[in-house]
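Q: Sequence in, structure out?
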Amino acid sequence: MSILGGALVAALTLLGCKDPSVSMSEGTREYTPADYPQVLKRWTRSESLISIAELDDLLTVTATYESWDFRWAYVVRYAEDYRLTVDQRRSLLNRTLTETQDGHRFYLALYGTTRRGVDLSRPTSGWIVRLIDDDGNETAPTSIEAIAKPGAIERTYFPYTTPFRTVLRVKFPLTNGDGRPTISPRAKWFGLRLAGAEGYEELHWELGTQTEKRAAFGYTESAVR
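A: Exactly. Output:
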């Protein structure tokens, strides 16, 4: 196959592997433990920043947005694995869903030229992370927590976690200082931008229909169920 033909096949492959759109809508879900891998995939994005000149992987990042939808599936799977009682499962679900009301949270696993360089929790990190959307919003995190020794839970429920990656939890505010949402109700997508002296990389989550977005951001009387 010619170089041009190979490039065409690669391009068509990428087009066929487009990430699915997501919905920020809240409400009851009817997941089973077996649904978790599919839900995890829906809310996870991965990108790599490659230096062609040096053939070097400057930054690889995989991130899961811990949305209402994702958290519901996570609790269902976790409750099954740990054989929680009905009351324990209900309590855990209430606690984890409540966390969606005070911030946008992401689970990140990063690989770069140096481990210290990709540890975003360090002031000496070579990269900064921002929450962005296509309406022009750009927001700094309120907290970055490094997970020094990821255990069985991280490796099982976020299987892209490896000993070679730096693992972090990053939280962003729901609103800016002037009260505007950090993810605009008009946005077609939101995402993360990691930028530094070596370049930048973005991960995008395409949003669903306008009706779903209005419901998610409080523009209708009831959430989508």
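Residues 1-16, 211-225 have pLDDT under 50 and may be disordered.
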